Every structure is written in structure tokens, then in C-alpha cells.
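Morning. Coffee machine broken again, so started the prediction first thing and wrote up yesterday's gels while waiting. Chain of 564 residues, entered below exactly as on the submission form.
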Amino acid sequence: MKKGITTISVLLFGAISVYLLGFKTNFASVSPTSQTQTASHTMSMGSTDPKAIPITSLVAPKTNAPVKTFNLTAEIANIRLGNGKTIEAWTYNGTSPGPEIRVKQGERVVVNLTNKLPVSLTIHWHGLDIPAAVDGVAGVTQDAVKPGGTYTYTFNADQVGTYWYHSHQNSALQTERGLFGTIVVEPKQAIVTYDKDYTIALHEWDTKENGNDSRDNDNDNDDNNNFDKRNKKDGNKNEFDSNRFHEGNTAKRSSESYGVNDRKMTPSTKQWEALSDQNDYDVFTLNGTSEGLHLDAKAGELVRLRLVNTGNQTHLMTVPGVRFQVIALDGRDLVGGTPIENTLLPIGPGQRYDISFRMPQKGSVQLVNADPSKQANQMMSATIGNGEPTAFNIDPKNFIWFDFSKYGTPQKGMFTVDSKFTKTYEMDLSEGLGLLNGQKEWVYTINGKAAPDIPPIEMKKGDSVKVVLRNKGKDIHPMHLHGHTFQVISKNGKPLEGSPVYLDTINIFPGETYEIAMKANNPGLWMLHCHNLKHAANGMHTMMNYDGISTPFRVGDHSGNHPE
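Came back before lunch.
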């Protein structure tokens, strides 16, 4: 990530860009037939037609299903992150991650939010294709909940899988400071029964000087702060020795990790270089601890891990020495999938990977991180089970990377590269110097423009839409679309070879190109943005607007709504 993004830059640009979002400008009309467009104008926040449907009316239909009620209180809490680090965090119910919301498919979910923080906030339900009125975006679907205020979100849990929630008011700061939690929607009838089912939230924290005050701003301005090294513990034979793991160099790339030789992906130099050195953060946690998470499991048990990246950096996770299966991406099941081993999972910000494995008859299993940052690797680890780990002297940097485009059983999906689309958009992602509050600053762009100068994707219900995403920059850009599931139909010009892949967030490395496709089946006004939320705050966000939808809400200083 480009260094030197100051607190003032993020806040001023966010305030100006979201303020301008509320104004509609002329935008070339799009015919129902396929038409490729390039973003170059100020984007719109909805229809000004007095006959338009208000977004507040787009709510979940009432059902007779059981109701599950959750009460979340946003409040300040001192969180112990481990290794002598604490932070005055912004939390839901005094913890970060906040309480897990776990429900059954079809149940009606009611979440009552009470705000005891000194700042306004919302809750966005990341990955759930719920009605637009409850998407939780300040200035688009609601006003941010002010200090002392309350708000209720109601939706039906129709979508099985692993998801998460976080604030979408000043989200770059508030999510980083601890306002997030996980969501699991279990199927009515499970096809596979797991003996253990755990959700693990990955997160990065900045506890450096001035990094934990209570103001609603971003104090990430110390890019050269030295990392406090982890204190090694002695005398515990069952504790995973991360130094031994990461300094070992005895393993070789396995040509059989995917079962067949052509299903592996060796990372390019650009991909390695794009991974952050993590200097923006000094603590890295799994479920809030940097001292090693421990999860119970017995020999022979079938374990499911739901990995949720709630931070701003891509992390390379794996369970060395154990054959595992990737069973879902972004909560959506994959078809088939051969068990793999010695393979790194590049989990981008906002993404979820569900994996399963069988516990060995002897010893524990380690979940480890293999980023370029040794400090992050030492902190982000988990032990599943008891006893000595199944693997020690291996170097994960010699592992191949998981490639979803070649994994699983081939099956016809909703779209193919030969499908006909009523709308086609092209988006070139990059970063560089640009105008920010009248001054040259580092910005993140779509087609050379930073918000608010990026026009929205415009559509009507029933459209079939293709978006071509090209990363022409040097940073990783995890692009997230609200309210919709999209299918990845090609990677770098080649159709996917394995299971159909459906996502809500796609992690795009430098030089990569993806074609994604979706059905316009959820009317509303939806954000499309980079989920490195600092990138979004500095320009990389736009809208996907349905015709004939209006919003009574506004963004900017006068409204108090600042979604990014």
C-alpha cells in the first residue's frame, strides 16, 4: 500500500466525495442492448423522479418463520490483544469481534442496535443479499445512528453460508477500530455434519502512539513505526513454534497438492511484491488474540474452519501437513474439490474461505499465516486439538497458492463467457497522484477517476450485467459489491476450469483481469468499492443504481453521514 496517506487526506477526501454523492448529474443513457461504458462523470445516488420507489420501502417480506433477536450495543472497551498490547476499541457488546450471529436458514433476524459511542455508526451485513433498506450504508439506506440513538435491522436469513457485519459509517476507521463481527447461516438440513465448526476472524490493529484515541478520525500516519517483537514463551511443548515453522526450509513444492499437476498456481513476483509489509499495523489477531488461538478437537473429528478477513490486508493462510478441502468461498458452496495440502489461501479483505479437514490420530493441527511480514506470521496462528503439531520444518513460502479458477468439479453455472449481456462495464483499477481537496495526493482510481467523479453502474431489474475488472496498478484491490452475488466467469481471459465460483468480493492482484457477471435481481442503490477500506476512503468506490429508486438520505457534513 502506498505510504503517506495522512489522516487529513482520508477524512477530507471522504467528506468531500460523499457530500457530492448526493447530487445527480447528467449521465449518458444506456440502451437495453449490450453497451460497454467507461466511467468519467460524477456518480449519482438515485432517481429524482417524484414517482420513484423510495429505498426505505424495500424491506424483507413478513414470514411465519421463527424470529431470532440479537441486541448489539456499540460501546468503548479496553481490549487486550495479547503480547502486552491493549487498545481502547470501539466494539459491539464490549468485544471485538462482536457476538457471532448464528441462525438457521429461513429464520427471521432482528438486530437491535444501541449506540453508546461518542460517534455515529451503522451496521452493514457484508455478503448477504438482503433488501436494500437494511443494507446499513450511512447516507444511502439510512442516517447513521447518533450517540445515544437506537436502530433496528430486520431481514430473513435465506442465504446459507459465512458472512460478517461491520459499520459502514466512516468505515475505514470504525471497522479497523473494532466494529465488526461474524454471521453464520446454517442450512435447514445439513448435508455434511461437522464435529467441530469454528469461525475465525482475521484482523489488524494499530495500537501505536495516537492510534487509540476516541476521535472519529484516522491516525494511521506512522508508516515507519517499528514493530514490537513477540515475546517467546518457554516450557510449553504443545505451543506452536512459529519461528521454527517460518524459518524452516526443508519442504519442496508438492506437484500433487491439487491432485493433478495443472491445478497449482505459483505466485508471480508482482503478487509477492503486492502483499503488504504490514507496517501500518503492530498487532495481528485471530478472534482478538495475537498469542495463538486454541480450538478444541479430538482425533478423527471432522473440523470446519470459517476464515473471515475483517482487515485491510491480504493474508496467506494454510494448515501445513494436513490435507484439507476448500468447501466454500464468500459463503457460497463450491462443487466438488479434491483435498489439497501445502497450499496457501490468499484471503483478501472482506473475503471468507471455508475449509474442512479430518483431525489426525495423533497431535494437533496448526492454522498459520505466511505473509512477507514475519511479525504478522508470529501472531496470526491457531492450534486445533492437543499435542505436538503435525508439521514443523517446512517453509510455506515454497507452497503453491490456491487458484479457485481451477478447483472443484466443472459444472455449468448461471453464466459463461459466451453469455449475452444487456449491460457491460469495464473498470481499470489503479492508484497514483491525483487531486484531493484541490491538492495533489495519493488516490485510488477506477478508469483514472477517483470518487466522486466515477459514474455509477446503471441498470434495471432483470438486466444481465457483466463487469470487466482490470488491476493496472501495483496494489491489491479486493472489490466488493453490496446486495448481490456475482459469478466469476473468466480469469486473465480464460474461462474457469473447475466449479462455478460465486462471490461478493474478488481479490484482484496487480496485472490480473476478471470478468464477473450477475443478474439484476435486488432493486436498490448499492455500493461497489475496494474493501481495503483505506483505498475506498481515498477514491475507489462507486454505485450500482437501479432505475426508479430514490433515497431520502444524504451524505456529507450537513447530514453527518460518511459511508467510507
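Residues 7 and 220 are 6 Å apart (CA to CA). Going to sketch it on the whiteboard this afternoon.
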